[in-house]
Amino acid sequence: MKISTRGRYALRIMLDLALSDSGRPVRVKEIAERQEISEKYMEQIISVLNKAGYVRSIRGPQGGYFLTRKPEEYTAGMILRLTEGSMAPVDCLEYEGQGCQRKEGCATLLLWERLDQAVRGVIDTVTLKDLAEWSRGQTRPL
């Protein structure tokens, strides 16, 4: 499994907003400069985050973006699934009951299920608050 730049950048954008929580909206240009992401690409990603309700925009000269919830209410998994789609390592785990026709006798199914559980165990428990604390050196990662 490999996370695309889109997924990685979405996490960095959300983390930047969490770290910049000054009560004022943050401009795309500021985030793009700090995160070294092209503004054009960032606008595409932030549009997805906005449509999903993860961020909100304010127009005008003092406008920009801010998180719609507290950092502890976003998990890395939420953000990655939004931008990457399913995080399941194989197709047969994506669709409940409609996966592979060989599922019943599959010798590797347990391996894929355990890998899926391990990934979910990390991405669904690490929050933006955790990432912000790690970034500030306040706590040690898992």
CATH architecture: Orthogonal Bundle
| Rg computed from alpha carbons, rounded to a whole number of angstroms | 18 Å
The assembly state of the depicted protein chains is single chain
Number of domains: 1
Q: Give the overall form.
A: elongated
Give the rounded overall mean pLDDT: 90
Secondary structure: helix percent: 40-55%
At the fourth level of CATH, the homologous superfamily is Winged helix-like DNA-binding domain superfamily/Winged helix DNA-binding domain
Order of helices and strands: HHHEEHHH
Portion in beta strands: 5-15%
CA-CA gap between termini: 20 Å
Label the structural class.
Answer: mainly alpha
CATH fold descriptor: Arc Repressor Mutant, subunit A
Biggest pleated sheet:
2 strands, antiparallel
CATH class: Mainly Alpha
Q: Detail the poorly predicted runs.
A: none
Q: Enumerate how many helices there are, as a single number.
A: 6
How many runs of DSSP E, i.e. beta strands?
2
How is the largest sheet built, in terms of strand order? 1-2
What does this 3D model show about the protein?
There is one protein chain. By secondary structure, the chain is mostly helical. It has one domain: Arc Repressor Mutant, subunit A. β1 and β2 form a beta hairpin. α1 packs across α3. The radius of gyration is 18 Å and the shape is elongated.
Which characteristics define this entry?
elongated, mainly alpha, 142 residues, Arc Repressor Mutant, subunit A, 6 helices, two-stranded antiparallel ribbon, 2 strands
